[in-house]
Amino acid sequence: MVFNIQRFSIHDGPGIRTTVFLKGCPLQCLWCSNPESQSNSAEISHSDLLCRKCGRCVAACETKAVSLTGDVLSIDRDRCGACGKCVETCPNDALGIYGKEMSVEEVFQEVERDRGFYLNSGGGVTVSGGEALAQPGFVAELFMRCRDEGIHTCLDTSGHASAAAWRDVLPLTDLVLFDLKHMDSLAHERTTGASNEKILDSLNLVVESGKPLIIRIPIVPGINDGPENVEAIARHVAGLKTVRKVNLMPYHRFGEGKYAMLGRSYSLAGLEPPGEVRLEGICSVFRSAGLECEVVN
Ligand code: SF4
Ligand code: SF4
Asked: Which ligand 1 atom is the nearest neighbour of the CA of 73?
């Protein structure tokens, strides 16, 4: 279940890459900028901004999932089977479907298109999410296919995955991008929906494998950017011998509009992204711990 394939990506590992975003995630981070990645099934989106309330989608929907009362269009998501008929009928591109089942071969054909760019830039394929390891069989097969063709493989993960999933995928992975959010397990659970024990176990497993590792830290003001947490992460990461560098990923608001399009509310509305000075201050904590650190916008 794929929700996006992004070509010419330059922030998801070395060189020019194709990033394959898989749908489905065991976490629900409050700041998630890809809320369409969280559910593991296809789902409908509706833009009230683009909608002209013409009612064509109501007529097209066989399950009566869409209704129009006055100028309010409502979607009953429990009734919606994501068939896409309303999307085809909308004259204003106000509707869309997030998520599509694709075979390994279909995804590989997309990835292979930019093989020349990978070779010239030291790039390759990155599988991200959602949580890529929620579909370990698919990732393992795709990575195997890519490696057979000499394409570098990178896994972008929250770390919240089973040991079995790691066992399937890690041997086929050339580089791991590993998210760390909070060292305080209760704060982690409060803000992502899950405690951090499984994630820290996963991190040990990756370090023991000897695979190159880049730690990525979302910096979310008031949630995980306090000195205690930053210093605790720096101490923890400084002790891991396979870490190549630390990337800070500043919180941004680009995903906010998608929550409404999915019929969901956004709990961090109004939160301002961190400023340059704050980010530089956090970077310096990691550098003082002997780690290479950069901000990735
Ligand atoms: S068909 Fe499109 S523009 Fe018309 S009511 Fe439905 S979503 Fe709105
Ligand atoms: S995707 Fe299909 S089931 Fe869902 S609202 Fe549109 S027409 Fe109805």
From this structure: 5
> What CA–CA distance (Å, rounded) separates 231 from 272?
22
Q: What is the CATH topology of the domain spanning 43-98?
A: Alpha-Beta Plaits (3.30.70)
Q: How far is CA 238 from CA 209, 212, 247, 284, 292, in A?
A: 17, 14, 14, 13, 10
Distance 81 CA to ligand 1 centre (A): 18
297, pLDDT greater than 90: no
- Per CATH, domain 2-39+100-295 is 3.20.20.70: yes
- Does the CB atom of residue 54 touch ligand 1 within 6 A? yes
- Atom 3, ligand 1: residue with shortest CA distance: 51
Name the residue of 41, 43, 44, 67 whose CB sits within 8 Å of the most ligand 2 atoms, as the mutation to test its pocket. Answer: 44
Radius of gyration over every alpha carbon of the chain, rounded to an integer in angstroms: 20
Q: Where do the domains of the chain lie?
A: 2-39+100-295, 43-98
- Give the separation between CA 255 and CA 266, rounded to whole angstroms: 10
For 61, phi and psi rounded to 5 degrees?
-85, 115
- Cβ-in-10-Å burial (0-12, 13-18, 19+) of 241 comes to exposed
Q: Output the CA torsion sign for 65, 40, 22, 187.
A: positive
250, 295 Cβ separation under 8 angstroms: yes
- 79 C-alpha to ligand 2 centroid (Å): 8
The amino acid at residue 115 is R
149: its two tokens = 């063709």
Which ligand approaches the C-alpha of residue 86 most closely? 2
Residues in the chain, total: 297
List pLDDT tens digits, range 191-217: 999 999 999 999 999 999 999 999 999
Task: List pLDDT tens digits, range 66-103.
Answer: 999 999 999 999 999 999 999 999 999 999 999 999 99
